[in-house]
Amino acid sequence: MSSGTSLKTKTTAPISDPNKRKRERTDTSEKVELKDATCCFCAQTPAALNVKLPVLGRKKRADMPYCLQCYYTSSAVRQGEQNVSILNKQEQERQLPAMQTMFSKCFLELQRDISKESIDAFSKRPKNHDPLAALLGTGISKMKKRPPPLKAGNHDDGGFLRNVDIPERLKKTQQQQLLARSEERQLARIEQTGTKNSNIESRNNDNLSVIAPINRYAISSSSTLSNRRRKGSGKSIWNLAMDPTSSKNDKNTVSHITATQEEDTMGVTCSSCGNKDVKSFGNITSRNGDVRKGEIWGTDRDSTVVTRYQCNNCGRTWNEEE
């Protein structure tokens, strides 16, 4: 291309969408059809309003034509203002006065009925014929029948206890039971006295005289005296053993101990003073008193039996092997 040649821009017309044209034609045709349509509810009166009602399974609402009377007396009145539009202005202005007069008549009739019912509610008319009586008595519970008044009995009976008359047949049965019980008690007493007499006769077969009845209180007192615990002397066991004025059993034990000591000290005399009054301290198995420690813990480990003595005259102590 040369520099002298000028560039020419080619302008193209906008491309028209055939589907869009079809939609516009259908929308305008639908508006024309809705404007001339009748009410979808009563199918008689020409439509004045266009109400968009929800459809199941679709997001978009459907346009439904309504007249004023069917709109205000059906569930279509619950739709919002954004879903209601005027379809035919002329029909809306023509139907509006009739609706206003109808609403005014209904309001006046309702006001008259309410005033009449309110007056009748406070009159002496029975509640069964009053339709609003249910509203006034909803919170009131039904009154139960009052219990009969209680009659107090005698003061000696203890409160409200009353003297009940027993029937004659029950009185007879009670008397028979009392008689049977008294007879059983008499028989038991006779058997008890017979067993006592037989026991007394068996004990005293040699004595043929009549035995006087035994006093039970005397038997119980004698048995309690024999079983009663004896009172102690109040001294300790050591004092009783060392006391020479104790009982005979204690003296016998002391004499037995001294006899055994005398047997142990027979033929033993003190080497220092020559006295035979010697006391024995019993047998021991080692000479711990007169030997050195080296002999105990050394090689000498014989367990010899040694008797320890003490002289009562000079006080000398020594050990003697058996």
TrEMBL record:
Residues 1-14 have a biased composition (Polar residues). Residues 153-165 have a biased composition (Basic and acidic residues). Residues 1-29, 138-165 are annotated as: Disordered. It comes from the Eukaryota. This is Uncharacterized protein. The lineage of its organism: Eukaryota, Sar, Stramenopiles, Ochrophyta, Bacillariophyta.
